[in-house]
Every structure is written in structure tokens, then in C-alpha cells.
Design goal:
Layout: H1 2-21, H2 28-35, E1 36-44, H3 48-54, E2 74-83, E3 86-96, E4 110-122, E5 125-133, H4 135-142, E6 164-165, H5 166-174, H6 181-191, E7 206-209, H7 213-222, H8 229-232, E8 239-246, E9 249-259, E10 273-285, E11 288-296, H9 298-305, H10 310-313
Parallel strand pairs: 1-5, 7-11
Antiparallel strand pairs: 2-3, 3-4, 4-5, 6-8, 8-9, 9-10, 10-11
Helix pairs in contact: 1-2, 5-6
């Protein structure tokens, strides 16, 4: 039974791997018909903020998988993990911007940005996909602002309050009578979002990437790094959407939640209630949490705060 379960996990990873590697090839359509369920649902698009704000603006279509905007697109898969019926995959989109991208005219610039996806598999078919691309990093590399809408409005992601309180997740994991090493590692990661957090959990920990990496680099360069999300949202109470564990890694999808009552990287507080999607990848050496890698929806947060002026300070010009 253990071998059967492992075989199914490897098959699930193969399906998700094929989802990405077939794109842009002559086998794309046939492969998609083979691996996607008839009722496949894309729960979130990778460029959801750019796409949502482009709706109804008569911008040129960027094409399937953005290949009109990035015809030489190559996706480099960096990691893939599976547990039960779920698969997580991390890759880098590498391309040249030679077509219109949701209202951003071609810049001719090369881009290299991270994207992450979470998938659900049932009966050897992919039934769900959830995606998040580093839109903030993409705009910085293009040197472009988000195009203005005709109505002058900005469409921000909704505050959904989705997910589960970190304390509840930690309590459930602590109640497991026979935890595996992966279960214990999950507990350590869940504790980081709960009142059960313990300093010794990260005694030998290294932060390899911050969720808002570009804003952190801006903060370090301009003497405002101390005004990070934990400072800007002092009452933040993140909610855990889901966790995956395989081998020495635990992946966690969560939402930062809070009200912006303090300065955010030098911006004055807006007193707006916000919710930012974020993914963390934790790596363990046995039962020691050795490093963490995070990716967050920076553009979505700036939209919720009505603070896109920060893009100008990051080198993004109006289009």
C-alpha cells in the first residue's frame, strides 16, 4: 500500500509537470485534453491583478499562456511536491516582452520572475489550479506602472477572510497521536502563524527569500526596512489556506490579514483592512527548520492599500 501511494504521488507530479512542459509545443492541445478534467477550474490566475484591471479596457489580448506578449517564453521548473491529492510546483518564467501585456506596450526587456501553482488531482486528471506570479517583480523588470483604466478606478483583490486560524491548525496537528516526521515539521511551520510559536523552532534558520523581496530591498536601500508588514500591520492575524509536506519540505499557502495602522516602507498608514496571498516553502534537516523561501502578492496588497505610488519609487513609469 505504501508503494501504491508513492506511485500515485509520482503520477500526480508527472501530470502537473506535463501541464507546464507541454505549453507552447505542438503537443499542447492533445496533452491538455489528456490531463485536464472536463470541469477543470482555474481558481486564481498568475497575473490576476493585471488581468482584472485590464477587463473592459480594449487592450490587446496577451494570448494563451501570455505567448503573444512573451512569444519566446520558457518556464524553468525549480521544485515540485505532492501530498494526498494535491501538488505544488514552483517555476521561473523567462522571456522577452515583445507584445502587449494587459495594456503594457512591448518594452523589449527580458524578464525572469517566479510563479507558483497549487493543483488538485482526481482520477488521474487535474481538477483545480491556483496560480500566483510575482507581478510586482514583473512590473519592476519591465519598468512599467499598471496601466490606467478608463474609469480611473483600481480593482483590488477582495478581503475574503478565507483559511483557518493558525492556532486551530497547530492544535489539530498537536492532537495527532502518531505523527510522522513530516507531520512534526508541518506543526513547526503552522506554529509560526499561531500563538504557539517557539523561538527554538528557528534556532538555525535562514530566510532565503522574503515574501515582499523587492520591497524589502527598497527598504534596505532607503533606510525604511524596519517598516515591514509586521510593523505596518501590528494586529495581523494570518490564516492558513493549506499545507503540503514531502521529504524535507513543507509548503504553506496563507493569507496575511490586518489593518494598516503604521508606516509601510515609508508610506503613511492608510487604516485599510488588507489580505495578501502568500506562499512559504520551508526546508528541514531532520527535525530542524533550516531555511524558508516566500512569495507574496505585493501588487494585490498595494492595490488594497491604494498605494501604487510606491511603484514610482521602484522605477516603474506610467504607460
Amino acid at each position: 500500500m505504501v508503494n501504491d501511494a508513492r506511485s500515485q504521488l509520482e503520477n500526480n507530479k508527472r501530470l502537473v509537470h506535463s501541464f507546464k512542459t507541454c505549453q507552447g509545443t505542438k503537443d499542447q492541445d492533445a496533452t491538455m485534453r489528456e490531463i485536464l478534467a472536463p470541469d477543470y477550474k482555474r481558481l486564481r490566475g498568475g497575473l490576476v491583478n493585471l488581468a482584472t484591471n485590464a477587463e473592459g479596457q480594449d487592450f490587446p489580448e496577451p494570448g494563451l499562456f501570455l505567448r503573444k506578449a512573451f512569444p519566446d517564453r520558457v518556464d524553468v521548473i525549480e521544485d515540485i511536491i505532492a501530498e494526498d491529492d494535491r501538488v505544488g510546483m514552483l517555476w521561473r518564467l523567462q522571456a522577452t516582452h515583445t507584445g502587449n501585456l494587459f495594456g503594457i506596450p512591448p518594452t523589449g526587456k527580458k524578464v525572469d520572475v517566479y510563479e507558483i501553482g497549487f493543483f488538485r488531482v482526481s482520477d488521474n486528471k487535474i481538477t483545480e489550479g491556483w496560480f500566483m506570479l510575482d507581478e510586482l517583480g514583473l512590473l519592476i523588470q519591465l519598468g512599467a506602472q499598471m496601466p490606467r483604466r478608463k474609469d480611473g478606478r483600481l480593482k483590488a483583490p477582495p478581503v475574503t477572510d478565507a483559511g483557518e486560524d493558525g492556532d486551530a491548525v497547530a492544535q489539530r496537528l498537536m492532537a495527532n497521536p502518531a505523527p510522522t516526521l513530516q507531520d512534526r515539521n508541518k506543526l513547526m511551520v503552522a506554529r509560526s502563524k499561531s500563538s504557539y510559536k517557539q523561538p527554538e523552532d528557528r534556532a538555525n534558520y535562514v530566510q532565503k527569500r522574503w515574501g515582499l523581496q523587492h520591497l524589502r530591498e527598497y527598504g534596505e536601500a532607503n533606510g525604511v526596512v524596519q517598516f515591514d508588514p509586521s510593523h505596518a500591520f501590528p494586529g495581523r492575524n494570518d490564516r492558513i489556506i493549506g499545507m503540503l509536506a514531502e521529504g524535507d519540505k513543507v509548503w504553506m499557502r496563507f493569507n496575511l490579514r490586518g489593518t494598516n495602522t503604521q508606516s509601510f516602507y515609508g508610506l503613511p498608514p492608510t487604516n485599510k483592512r488588507c489580505e495578501m496571498a502568500e506562499v512559504g516553502i520551508a526546508r528541514f534537516d531532520g527535525d530542524k527548520w533550516v531555511d524558508g523561501w516566500y512569495l507574496a502578492d505585493g501588487i494585490g496588497l498595494l492595490l488594497q492599500m491604494d498605494a501604487l505610488e510606491l511603484l514610482e519609487k521602484l522605477g516603474c513609469k506610467s504607460v
